[in-house]
Fold each of these.
Amino acid sequence: MNICLTYFAIGIGLFAFSALFALFGVYAERKVAAFIQDRLGPTETGKFGMLQTLADGLKLIQKELIIPAAADKILFMMAPAIIFIAVYMGFAAMPWAPGVVPTSLNLGLYYIFAIVAIETLGILMAGWGSNNKYSILGSMRSVAQIISYEIPAGFALISVIMISQSLNMQTIATQQGILSVEGTKFLGFWNVSKIGGVFAWNIFRAPHLIIAFVIYFIASLAESNRAPFDIPEAESELVAGFHTEYTGWRFAFVFFAEYSMMFLVSMISVVLFLGAWNTPLPNIGSVQLATWTTGITWGIIWVLVKSLLLVGAQMWIRWTLPRLRVDQLMNLCWKVLTPLAFLCMLVSGIWRVFLM
Amino acid sequence: MNNNKVINGFTTAWKGLTLTLGHLFASNAKRKVIPASDNNYFKQLEGTNTIQYPKQSLPVPEVGRYQLDVEIDDCIVCDLCAKICPVDCITIDSIKATEVIGQTSDGSKKMLYAAKFDIDMAKCMYCGLCTIVCPTECIIMTNQYDRTVFELKDLNYEFSDMTPEDAAEKRALLEKQQAEKQAAKLAAMQKKEAGQ
C-alpha cells in the first residue's frame, strides 16, 4: 500500500515538475528570444510578464477542442498523450542526487533511449491522424530526422557506456565524483578519486567524450525538434507541421512534451558527460569544496543548474542559427556526426583497454 | 575539402552565437525615447529597440503631417480642397448666404455657409494637397496620428458647426431672397415692357 502511494507521489511529482518546467521554459524562451532580438518580450502580465505562460495555459484550457471532420479520431486524440507520456516516462530513470532516483534501473539508459523513441510514433500518429498535408509532411520529416539522429546520438552514448561499463544512470553518475568506488582518473593518468570536482566528469576522464558530448548535444537538438533542426514544424513552410490541427489542451500537451524533452535530453547529457549531480568544485588540500557540496540538496541543485544551462544553450542556438534544409540535415547526420561518433566509440574502446 | 566545410560550418555558427550572446547580455532596459531630431537618435544601436507604445511614444514635431483638422470659422467654403483631393475624401455642401456673414481671421469675406464639411480619414492618403490650396489656411495637418475607432463611420470627421435646422433655415432664406430677386427682376422687366 505504502509503496503504491510512493509510486503515485513520484509520478505526480515528476508530472508537476515537467509542467512547472514547461511554464518556466516557455517564459524563459520568450525572454531569451526577445533579448537576443533587442526586444523586451512579455512585460504586461505580472511583474516582468512572469504570469504570461500561466495566462496562456488558462487560455488554452478554455479553448474548444476541434477534431477535423476527416481526421482519424482515435489516432488524433491519442497522439498528444503518447507524445507527452513518452517523454514524461523518460524521467523515471533519471538520477537527481546521490540515492535519489525514481527507479534505479540496471537498463536505465537503454530504457530512456527506447521510451523517448516512442515520441516519434506519437508524432507520426498526430500527422497521419490529422489528415492534413502539412501535418503529414511535418511528421514524415520528424520521423526521418529523429530516426537518423538516433544513430549518432546512440553511438555517442555507447562511447560513454564503454567507459563507464554500466547502463544504470545512477552508477554512471556516481562514477564521476568523490563518491566513486572504483576510483577515477583525470585524462587517464591523474588519480582524482579524492579530489573530484570538474576533473572527475566523464568529459575529462576521457577527453574524446567532449566530441561525443557535442555530437549528442547536436543530435538531441534534432531529437527534440528544435531549431536549427525544426523542419518538422517549419512555420514558414508547413504552417506548424505535425501539430497544425491541434487546439486547446491537446496543443498544450504537444508543447509540454517539447519543453519536457528539452529538459530530458539536457539532463541525459548532464548525467552522461557533465558529472550528473556531482559538484564542479574540487577538493583542494584541506579546503574540502567537493565534500562540502555533495549531498542530496546539493545534488538536486547541481543537476538543475547544469541542465538549465544546457537548456539555455539550446534556446541560444535556436534564436541564432537558421533552419537547415532536409538534405543539409541528412548530410550533417550521416556524413559528419555518424563517422565521428563511430570514431569516438573506437577511441573509447582503446581508452578502456589501455588507460583505465 | 569536406573537412574544411565542416570546420567552416562550426566556426561560422560560433561567430553567430557570439553575436547573439552579445545582444542577450546587452542592456535590457527600456529604450529612452528621444525625438528623431536629436543628435544621438541614430546612435542608439545598443540595447532595446522597441518602444513600449501606449506607455511610451516617439515625440513627433508640432508641425506633424498626420490627421487633418479644419478651423471652420476661417473657412470660406470655396471647395478648393474637395476639388484637389486625389481620393475625394472631402465632401462639402455649401449654401449661399443672403449677405456677407463675417470675416475670417485673415480678413477674407465669408459668403457661404458650410452645411456639410466632412473628411473621411479612412480614405485620406495624407498627401497634404488640401492644406496647400486652402486660401485661408483653415485646413491643416496636425501632429495627432493615433486614432482607433470601433465603427468605420467614426473615421468620417464632421467639421460643420451647423445643425440641420440651421441649414434648412438658411436655405429657406436663400430661396426667399432668390424668389424676391426673381420677382423684382420680373417686375422690372414688366415695367420695361410697359414703358415701351
Amino acid sequence: MRKNNLFIYGLILVLGIAAPFLFPAYKLQISFMWILVVLALTWDVQGGQMGYNSFGNILFFGIGMYICAGVQIGLFFPLAEWTASGGEKTFIHTPSQYFQGLFVGLILSGVVPAIVAALIGYGILGLRGQYFAICTLGLGIAAGEIASGIELIGAGQGMTAPPWPKGIGGTELRSQFFYYLCFVLMVVTFIFLKWAYQTRFGLVLNAIRDNEDKAEAMGIHTMRYKIIGWVVSAFFLGIAGGLMGSMIGYIEPVEIAFAGATYGVFMVLMAILGGKGTLWGPVIGAMAFHILKEGFWTFFLGWQYVALGALIVIIVVFFPEGIMGSLREKYPERFGEVVDEADRKAQVELK
Amino acid sequence: MDKILEVDKVYKYFGGVKANENISLTVEEGSIVGLIGPNGSGKTTLFNSIVGTHPIDRGSINFDGKEVSALPVPVVAKLGLLRTFQQTRIYGKLNCVQNMLISSKPEKDNIFTVFAKIPEELTAKAGNLLNFVGLYQKRKLRAGDLSFGQQKLLELAMALMNEPKMLLLDEPTAGINPTLINGIIDRLIRVNKEFSITLLVIEHNMRVIMNLAQKIFCLAHGKLLAEGTPEQIKNDKRVIDAYLGAQ
C-alpha cells in the first residue's frame, strides 16, 4: 500500500516535470490547471474540511494578484506613472530586476492576503452556516468594486504586469518558467496540506465541521483554528493569484482579479466535484473540471455556459459527495472502515 | 469530603420563562449525584449554566475552588468540568479513534501547537477506553454510522479521554435498550471508582438513578423541590406529586 502510494506520487512528479516537453502546445493550459488545483485545495480547507462554505476566497486571489504586480513594479519604478500611462512602454525591467521583483512580489502576495484573512476572519468567522456564506459572498464583490476605484492600481481600466524581460529568451522560455512555478506551487500546497491534515489542525477542522458546539464543549478554542485555517488558505491562494497575474500579464479588477463569477465559483465546483473534505478530491475535481471546461469551450462554443450549468446540476443531483465521496460510500472498506473482529482484552488505564 | 461543585442561589430567566429560580446544590468530590425532575423543570438549563453555555442572571457557581459562572465553555472544560448531551453529539464523519484523539486534552495549547503532531501513545489510550465502553471492534467505523446507544457510549469514552475531574451526564441511558442500560450503570460506577471522576447525572429512569446515586436533587418548575438520599427521595410526597400529579 505504501509502496503503491510512492509509485503514484513519483509518477505524478515525473509527468508534471515532463509535461511541457510531452505536450508543448498545452503548456499554458496545464499551468492553468495547476493553478486551479491550488484554488480547489485551498477552498477545501474551509468548505470541505472545516464545513464553512466561503464564496469570498476569490478576495485573496485578487489581492495576491495586485500585490505581486504592484511590488514588482513599485520596487524599481513609480507605480502611479506606470498605471497612468501604460508604463510598460516607458519603464523597462532588466532581467535581474524582473526576477528579484517577482520573487519579493510572490512572497508578499502570500503574506498580505494571509494578514487580511486573519483580520477579516476574526470579525466574521463567528458567523455560521449560511450566514457565513452570505457574508463572504459580499467580500469578493466589494473588493472588485473598491479596486475599480483605486487610481494607483489602474482603477476600472486595470493594469499591466511587467512584461517578460528582453534578451533572455522568448515566449517559449517564459511559458516554461511559469509552468514550473505553477507546478511547484501546486506540489508545495499539496504537501503542506497533506501534512497539516495529519496534525491536530486537521482533526480540529473536521471536528468543527461535524459539530462545532461539541468541539467547544470539549475545550477546543475553535476560533483559533478557524482563523489559522483561513490564513493558510489565503496564503497559498494569494501566491496563486500573484502567479496568475504575472502569467496573464494584464490585471483587471472585476473580470480577472476578483472574478467571483468565474474562478470564485469554479473553486467551489471543483472541490465539490472531486469530493470535499478529502485530500485528493479537490485535485481530481480540478483536473476533471478543467478538461471538461476546455472541452465545452472548444466543442460547444456559444453554449459553453449552458453545458457548464448542466454539469453543475449533474454534480449536485447525482454526486453530492463528489467523486471521492461516492467511492467512499460505495467501498467503505477500501477507506479503512472495517469492523475489527479480533477481540481484545486490554487493561483499562486512564493514564 | 471536599465540595467540588457549589451552585449558590442561581437564577436563569428566558424572558418570562423562569427556567431556574434560586437553585442551590453542592456536589462532593468523588460522589455520584443525581438530578431528577419532570420534563421542563430546568435540569438541562442548569447544566448549561454550570458549563457556561449561557450566562446566569444571578447567583454563583463554584467549581473546584474557582468561580466559573462568567467563564466561557472551553475554559470551563479545561478546568476539568465536562458535560455530555441529551442528544448525542459526536463527530459523525470521523471514525471512533479520531473522535477519541480529538477529545484528549493537549499538554500545551497555544498558537504554536496548532500544527502539533498527535502523540502515538494517545492511539493506544483511545483503544483502551474504546475497549472499556465495548466499542473497540468498531473503532475504524465512522461514528455517524454507529447506533444511537453506541454513540452514547462513544460520547462517554470521549469525555473520559479528556480526563475531567467531574462529568455532567445528561440522560446517559435515554434511548438505550434495557440490557445495555445495566452495562452503562456498571461502567458509570467504575468510572467513578477507578478513575475517581465525580458524576452529576440527569436521569429519568428511576431504577437507574436510585441504583447509581448517593444523593439526589429534584427540580420542579425551575425550583429545587427536594434533596436527599435515594430512599428519602423515593418516599418524598412532593416528589411523587411532581411526577404523577397531586391528588
